[in-house]
Amino acid sequence: MKPQPSKKIDPRAFERIMREHNRMLFRTARAILRDDAEAEDALQEAYVQAYHALARFRGEAKLSTWLARIVANEALMRLRKLSRRAEIVPMQPAATRQELEQVSDTDMDNAPDTSAEREELRRALESQIDALPDSYRAVFMLRAVEELSVEETAAILQIPPATVRTRFFRARSLLREALAQKIDLACEDAFSFAGARCDRIVAHVLARINPSKETP
Length: 216
Prior knowledge:
Order of helices and strands: HHHHHHHHH
Number of domains: 1
Mean pLDDT: 77
Low-confidence stretches: 86-111
Number of strands: 0
CATH architecture: Up-down Bundle
Helix content: 55-70%
Strand content: under 5%
CATH superfamily: PhyR, sigma-like (SL) domain
CATH class: Mainly Alpha
Largest sheet: none
Number of helices: 9
């Protein structure tokens, strides 16, 4: 039987939780899956799992860490299924993958030249991140892009802190070989979380956890 959420958990309160954590959790899923659509599906499923389990959350870890662990587990499960289905297809060059959605979260930079340069730099960074080995990519996204601590990253990925440090150091070395000094300038904008994607994920999850209510 499908578990029922606690009556004390208001879907609107959960919507606020989703909107607060959406970008970080999407980046976590995408770092593992390397695919926008798969990452969205994994995030939505993980949110439904989290909603039904939220009443049992005891605050032993930060809420963001607890949510990210659920997302990572869901993404890793999907990755294993995809790997078995594809019989471990070798990683494709970044140039052959579908172009990522390039929509800025803000209009901070209105100058055409500046925007074009940032866009080009972000594309280069995203391509190189996608080309990282799987074990390095997730660590780099959580540590460098989301700026989580070593301990938080270790808890989410369920690996020792020493492994996080080693993989992060190696990932930065690999990226610096490709991007030189440009890497630190682009981390803030990498894999931007567009408002449309945020709204779409929230709407889908709310429809699943509270089907009797119409979402705006």
